[in-house]
Design a protein that fits this description.
six-stranded parallel sheet; globular; Rossmann fold; alpha/beta; single chain
Length: 539
């Protein structure tokens, strides 16, 4: 079988039915194979955007996002997407259709020496297929690497001259690629039953005299089994439950035990201050996610999928790495007969009173609540980094898993629009709303063409305040300077209509709510929300 068909066959065998792609002269024979194997190809307009599409797909679908990239500028343009996937533990497979390295040194088209090295410190592993016999083994190892243990991106380079050649039958080669990147040093999650028993015994001893523990969970606990266990466990044990930004939606935030994102102030900070031990599971507790947001932890039990982040930002009374699905079953037994000294109903009512008072003075909160009230509860919302998005990160209630996607890996502001396209492809049965700032939306606006081409029914909300709003807010408060972050923007409604996409404009939270309430969610749509600058949630 020719190599192009072996690649398509590999995708199909691993239930990879959707890929994101920007073709070039080196990749043309792949299209024949994709059609033959029924692979859905989403051909975007810019490689950086398709990398974000694949990352959004991965997070919404809970499976690997796959992109095919041409050499030279094509590969270079996916750097920021790989950085985001690496920083956010998202499985991403970048298939780089490479030049013929035997001709390097002659100035051949897109020639770069060992271009995988560009990705050395923000992928789990890079691969170079140096022989046809090594193709399938390299693909298999790349896939396993991306989706196991701490998930993340991989890059596999395949010379384009292989695509039309027959892959020899017989014993496969052991040539599987370049050495793994230097950045991944966490110990494996494969812990023995004895080690889990030891962790539970240590926790039992620590908790013996504790009256007010609380639980913080992160993105690595985003699986159905966690939802089934943690909500009932925390309600039964009367234990407050918090998430990081990536963990929003692990359990329904309407439960009395659930208090939302741990970075909030007010009652959340008060609960943290009164806790006699914090149990953090499946979260790295990175500085950017916790410590610099004012999250203070006195005594910590930290359990993650590997030991890479243990003790990095907070000292640990107990630190351990385990398979988290097995761990939660042990948790259920550990807490089965405990009830702690928290009045969850009182705390929840206090949080609601606090939210009502905040709503009266903060426009950002009123806007995200208008969005929340207007959309179905299973809507997948995808946020770039804008003033609206930061308010959502702190206060937007999330009811279902994998319905709140925000780029907190390296925090790119151009994520929302393209990632929304990928998220809808990954969760086709759910409504999908992408929320972008005007600064963040513009570099991805060409992908309205992709939405229209494939009739992807995403609703894009562009918050247009005529500036890089978060930076403008900071410039005014820190330096007393106005207008230094102003932008010259187009008419976003006209741009959408130029692509034959329906669009509306509104200038009020009430108008926004009304438009969203009338949405059918079965066609591409753009809403331009023209609204003045307002403050950030951190003041």
């Amino acid at each position: 079988m020719r190599a192009n068909f072996e690649i398509a066959k590999f995708l199909k065998q691993n239930n990879i039915n959707d890929i994101f792609y920007l073709p070039g002269i080196q990749t043309l024979s792949l299209d024949e194979a994709f059609v033959s194997y029924g692979i859905n190809v989403f051909m975007g307009r810019y490689e950086s955007n398709i990398a974000y599409m694949a990352e959004g797909y991965s997070r919404a679908a809970d499976k690997a996002g796959v992109i095919f990239i041409t050499p030279g500028p094509g590969l270079g343009n996916v750097v920021s997407g790989c950085m985001e996937a690496y920083g956010d533990d998202s499985p991403l497979i970048v298939v780089h259709i490479d030049t013929n390295r035997a001709e390097h040194g002659r100035g051949v088209l897109h020639e770069l020496a060992e271009p995988e090295n560009i990705f050395r410190y923000f992928t789990k592993k890079t691969f170079y297929v140096s022989s046809l016999q090594g193709l399938v083994p390299a693909l298999e190892e790349a896939y396993r690497t991306a989706v196991t243990d701490r998930k993340g991106p991989v890059v596999i380079s395949i010379p384009f001259i292989f695509l039309d050649k027959e892959v020899p039958a017989g014993k496969p080669s052991t040539d599987k690629g370049l050495p793994s990147s230097a950045g991944y040093e966490g110990r494996s999650t494969q812990q023995s039953g004895a080690q889990l028993k030891d962790t539970m015994e240590r926790m039992s001893s620590l908790l013996r005299d504790k009256e007010r523990p609380l639980l913080i969970c992160g993105k690595s606990v985003m699986f159905d089994h966690a939802r089934e266990i943690l909500g009932p466990l925390c309600m039964r044990a009367s234990m407050p439950f918090f998430t990081t930004t990536g963990g929003k939606g692990i359990i329904d935030e309407r439960l009395a035990c659930s208090f939302g994102n741990v970075i909030q102030k007010g009652i959340v900070k008060k609960i943290l201050g009164e806790a006699d031990v914090v149990i953090a599971v499946g979260t790295r507790l990175r500085d950017v996610d916790a410590k610099r947001r004012g999250v203070k932890i006195e005594e910590l039990v930290h359990i993650d999928i590997d030991d890479r982040w243990l003790g990095k930002n907070y000292p640990t009374a107990i630190g351990a790495s385990h398979d988290l699905k097995g761990l939660l079953g042990a948790f259920d037994k550990l807490f089965s007969k405990r009830r702690f000294n928290w009045d969850l109903d009182r705390l929840k009512k206090e949080q609601e009173r606090e939210r009502r008072a905040l709503r009266k003075r903060e426009e950002g909160l009123r806007i995200i609540e208008a969005v929340r009230d207007a959309i179905p509860e299973d809507t997948v919302t995808i946020w770039d980094l804008s003033l609206i998005s930061y308010w959502a990160e702190y206060y937007f209630p999330v009811y279902r898993q994998r319905t709140f996607l925000m780029p907190r890996g390296i925090s790119p502001i151009f994520y929302g629009l393209p990632a929304s396209i990928g998220a809808k492809a990954g969760a086709p049965d759910r409504p999908c709303l992408g929320i972008c700032g005007d600064g963040g939306a513009f570099p991805g606006i060409s992908e309205l063409s992709t939405m229209k081409k494939y009739n992807i029914p995403v609703v894009i909300l562009v918050y247009n305040n005529g500036c890089f709003g978060t930076l403008e807010d900071m410039m005014r408060k820190r330096y007393g300077k106005k207008g230094s972050m102003d932008l010259v923007n187009p008419d976003f409604v006209k741009i959408a209509r130029a692509f034959d996409i329906k669009a509306k404009r509104t200038g009020s939270a009430e108008g926004l709510k009304k438009i969203l309430q009338g949405m059918r969610w079965d066609e591409p749509y753009l809403i331009e929300f023209q609204y003045p600058l307002f403050s950030t949630p951190w003041g």
